[in-house]
Amino acid sequence: MTPHEENELRARQKSRARVMALLLGAFCLLMFFITISKIRAGMGH
């Protein structure tokens, strides 16, 4: 594998890692807001 190919591979891996980090963060926020809304809905009783 040439150094140029290795750099391209690393760039693709870094790009995928960023996308996965963003998706994981979005999922965590979604779970947080769903939990908060369920807690608030339960407080009304």
How would you describe what is shown here?
Keywords: Membrane, Transmembrane, Transmembrane helix. This is Cytochrome C oxidase assembly protein. The chain is mainly α and 45 residues long. It contains 1 helix and no strands. The longest helix has 41 residues. The mean pLDDT is 94. Helix content is 91%, strand content 0%. The termini are far apart.
Q: Could you name the key traits of this structure?
A:
mainly alpha; rod-shaped; single chain
How confident is the prediction overall: mean pLDDT? 94
Question: What structural class do the secondary elements suggest?
Answer: mainly alpha
Model regions low in confidence, pLDDT < 50 over at least 5 residues: none
Total number of beta strands:
0
Silhouette: rod-shaped
Count of alpha and pi helical runs: 1
Distance between the termini: 65 Å
Strand content: under 5%
Radius of gyration: 20 Å
Give the % helix: over 70%
- SSE order in H/E notation? H
The biggest beta sheet reads: none
Organism: Sphingomonas donggukensis
Transmembrane segments: 21-39
Protein name: Cytochrome C oxidase assembly protein
Keywords: Membrane, Transmembrane, Transmembrane helix
